[in-house]
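Re-running the complex after MR caught last week's input typo. The corrected sequence lines follow. Everything else is unchanged.
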Amino acid sequence: DQQVKQNSPSLSVQEGRISILNCDYTNSMFDYFLWYKKYPAEGPTFLISISSIKDKNEDGRFTVFLNKSAKHLSLHIVPSQPGDSAVYFCAASAVGFGNEKLTFGTGTRLTIIP
Amino acid sequence: KAGVTQTPRYLIKTRGQQVTLSCSPISGHRSVSWYQQTPGQGLQFLFEYFSETQRNKGNFPGRFSGRQFSNSRSEMNVSTLELGDSALYLCASSPYERQYLNSPLHFGNGTRLTVT
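Corrected-run output:
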């Protein structure tokens, strides 16, 4: 049972435009969400996070939006740069429910076209 | 500060054999987690250790086991290897008992295991 879903396995975006990566979850207990970025032959690196008490968190070019009623979060990258080409994983956890392990989605491969 | 180190980087084993993977966390980090990455399945949580105690376990068969030493280094063992165990195994460390609160997980570059 995939509790965190990234339905788009891949996405191509022109350099300078906005990249929007989506993630849906089914477990209503999830209250903390993160995005990780992964280059080939490297481990994932943390990008940005958001707790369920917020609906938006920004860090430079990266913004994460959380819609709790729809159980949906998205990552916006503006403007997109060639170095953003990577696989992006969203992850979720139920911090307040004694189950802090991260549940990851299957990833979306983002390709930025120069 | 050195990052999370995983050894070996690549491993080829035969079905039925067993394998041990090693992970050295970032200095000062006491929590170590293991994940399996396969195409189409994302990162699947295996287990987490903190101060030599297993804190959390994923839905993997008993053939998958791990341990953590007093210096926080961790090993993962898979016995009776199956073809489906071929994957990238990632280790991640964190300073805190709760995997990522106040500090996100720091991943190593993984061990690519191929079972033939």
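None of the earlier attempt is carried over here. The mean pLDDT of chain A is 92. The interface with chain B takes residues 4, 6, 32, 34, 36, 41-46, 49, 89, 91, 93, 95, 99-107 of chain A (CB under 8 Å).
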